[in-house]
Amino acid sequence: KMAAAAGCGVAATALWSEVNRCGQNGDFARALKSVNKILQISKDDVTALQCKVVCLIQNGNFKEALGVINTHTKVLTSDIIAFEKAYCEYRLNRIENALKTIQSASQQTDKLKELYGQVLYRLERYDDCLAAYRDLIRNSQDEYEEERKTNLSAVVAAQSTWEKVMPEDLGLREATYELCYNSACALIGQGKLNEAMKKLQKAEELCRQSLSEDSDVTEEDIEAELAIIHGQMAYIMQLQDRTEDALQLYNQIIKLKPTDVGLLAVIANNIITINKDQNVFDSKKKVKLTNAEGVEHKLSKKQLQAIEFNKALLAMYTNQADQCRKLSAGLQTQSPEHLLPVLIQAAQLCREKQHAKAVGLLQDFADQHPANAAEIKLTMAQLKIAQGSVTKACMILRSIEELQHKPGMVSALVTMYSHEEDIDSAIEVFTQAIQWYQQFQASQTRNPKSPVHLSLIREAANFKLKHGRKKEAISDLEELWKQNPRGVHTLAQLISAYSLVDPEKAKVLSKHLPSSDTMSLKVDVDALENSHGATYVRKKAGKLTGDNQQKEQGQGDVKKKKKKKKGKLPKNYDPKVTPDPERWLPMRERSYYRGRKKGKKKDQVGKGTQGSTTAGSSELDASRTASSPPTSPRPGSAAAVSATSNVIPPRHQKPAGAPATKKKQQQKKKKGAKGGW
């Protein structure tokens, strides 16, 4: 296309020579100037127009190149310029237009097939893309075979990651770090995280070896190339709950400031998921990286959707209710059948204490999308439980037909009904689940009773026995014994139940119990006695003497006599002196108690003003001693005595035992009180 064509003059010939020389040297900017001069001479020259488009593409001016093609549609027909047009549309992220251009081309050249594979990958049509690359590898033999194999492995990795398709073994030799990286991505999609980490470590090693051979490549360049590998390593760590290691590696990548906006957006999103409702300020900074220009063209639809979900959740955590509603509503418009948008809206309503409105929103979604009703109803039941409406929650759970018979659902319903003391409803749940399994077994030929079915019958029987429904439990136990006549435990339960309802039947059934001689327990007595639990029990019970052991073995009916311990005597005990008969009484209640003696200084401190006579001075006066009360009152008591008069009026006189009683009450009150300021 860059070859010079025969011109209509010497000037045109010289210009074509200049275009040819610049094209071979890669100087497309200078070549473009010469092409424009040629077009001034002949504006509809097809070769010149083609050369101009190529020069613009090589200089990265895709929009201008596409404008030239669309302006000269009569001259530049689709069979001449199909590849250049499709490539410009591809680079301008007009992927659907590029696909139409390729499909409308009259001849599918190798270049168009290569571009077709890239377009299909961007459109996430992985099955068609895989077929296109297989055809290319099969029918091409040139120096680009390694790149095609890399693209093929990328398609397989995308299928495994986004469509959960089991990847097939392509038989590719993983000699490059790109192939190793794609293989690791496929393993992550399968959940084989440890194997994926080993592949990534191998990819890192190959990358370092490959880039270190080039003397112009610096260590910073190598780290920048390794950023995407390290990002995938951090993602595996995050999946393995090694969040601290993952967070450290994510932040190291961000510090490198890689030019790949898609990589930065994914890392920022993953950090936000680690932060959750904590470290919100950091999450608000990281979310800006997800809004960078061109991110939407670098990531898959599921990646972009996950980022938008996390933006809505972050808005909820930061109490931006309006922003949360706006984002979740937009997501619901884009994906009406998706659960997360409506769940986020319901969560936001719950944060605003609008539980009834949240339940109504979920109910509307369940009615509109029956396929997703189960998960929505589980959420509704959780909200009802949070509100304390356990019975309503049970009604919602029982309306999920596809989960009614599941052991987990049965267990949850029985527990909830038991909490509400609704035993009849709990038994009904058991009955319905057992009937479902019976119908299922009837539809299956040559299949014995399933373990789940028998387990439900046993649980139902145990539940009925626990709540006194002996007759109902007997029918379940008989069914179990019928299925397994050698089940000793079931037979013992059946005999126990019959003993309370029909003792004669219990006696008949007891004949089926195996004798003790036929039962081999295979118990290691020594090991049992030396176990931790047995040692602990022995220590608690105390060691037995040899005589006591003989008594226990030979005379189990003889009661062991307890030895009475001698009482301890006080240290100053004198057998010649008669003990005080009032020694059992508290000191304050004894006849000879005269109260505590208080120091003079202690009584005088802080009483009265300077120069005045205090109440304490009357106690020191011998002339007043006869009329003073027998004991001095405690501070704060009502037994205060006037210092101005020795005469006690008749109405205020108290019995002889009154002061001692008063002190006893005060002492009890003081003992019962708790300290504190």
UniProtKB/TrEMBL annotation:
<dbReference type="GO" id="GO:0006614">
    <property type="term" value="P:SRP-dependent cotranslational protein targeting to membrane"/>
</dbReference>
<dbReference type="Pfam" id="PF13181">
    <property type="entry name" value="TPR_8"/>
</dbReference>
<dbReference type="Pfam" id="PF08492">
    <property type="entry name" value="SRP72"/>
</dbReference>
<dbReference type="GO" id="GO:0043022">
    <property type="term" value="F:ribosome binding"/>
</dbReference>
<comment type="similarity">
    <text>Belongs to the SRP72 family.</text>
</comment>
<dbReference type="GO" id="GO:0008312">
    <property type="term" value="F:7S RNA binding"/>
</dbReference>
<feature type="repeat" description="TPR">
    <location>
        <begin position="227"/>
        <end position="260"/>
    </location>
</feature>
<keyword id="KW-0677">Repeat</keyword>
<keyword id="KW-0175">Coiled coil</keyword>
<feature type="coiled-coil region">
    <location>
        <begin position="95"/>
        <end position="150"/>
    </location>
</feature>
<dbReference type="InterPro" id="IPR031545">
    <property type="entry name" value="SRP72_TPR-like"/>
</dbReference>
<dbReference type="GO" id="GO:0005786">
    <property type="term" value="C:signal recognition particle, endoplasmic reticulum targeting"/>
</dbReference>
<keyword id="KW-0687">Ribonucleoprotein</keyword>
<dbReference type="GO" id="GO:0005783">
    <property type="term" value="C:endoplasmic reticulum"/>
</dbReference>
<feature type="compositionally biased region" description="Basic and acidic residues">
    <location>
        <begin position="571"/>
        <end position="592"/>
    </location>
</feature>
<feature type="compositionally biased region" description="Basic residues">
    <location>
        <begin position="559"/>
        <end position="569"/>
    </location>
</feature>
<keyword id="KW-0802">TPR repeat</keyword>
<feature type="compositionally biased region" description="Low complexity">
    <location>
        <begin position="623"/>
        <end position="640"/>
    </location>
</feature>
<dbReference type="InterPro" id="IPR013699">
    <property type="entry name" value="Signal_recog_part_SRP72_RNA-bd"/>
</dbReference>
<keyword id="KW-0733">Signal recognition particle</keyword>
<keyword id="KW-0256">Endoplasmic reticulum</keyword>
<dbReference type="Pfam" id="PF17004">
    <property type="entry name" value="SRP_TPR_like"/>
</dbReference>
<feature type="domain" description="Signal recognition particle SRP72 subunit RNA-binding">
    <location>
        <begin position="539"/>
        <end position="595"/>
    </location>
</feature>
<protein>
    <recommendedName>
        <fullName>Signal recognition particle subunit SRP72</fullName>
    </recommendedName>
</protein>
<dbReference type="InterPro" id="IPR011990">
    <property type="entry name" value="TPR-like_helical_dom_sf"/>
</dbReference>
<feature type="compositionally biased region" description="Basic residues">
    <location>
        <begin position="661"/>
        <end position="677"/>
    </location>
</feature>
<dbReference type="InterPro" id="IPR026270">
    <property type="entry name" value="SRP72"/>
</dbReference>
<feature type="region of interest" description="Disordered">
    <location>
        <begin position="538"/>
        <end position="677"/>
    </location>
</feature>
<keyword id="KW-0963">Cytoplasm</keyword>
<dbReference type="InterPro" id="IPR019734">
    <property type="entry name" value="TPR_rpt"/>
</dbReference>
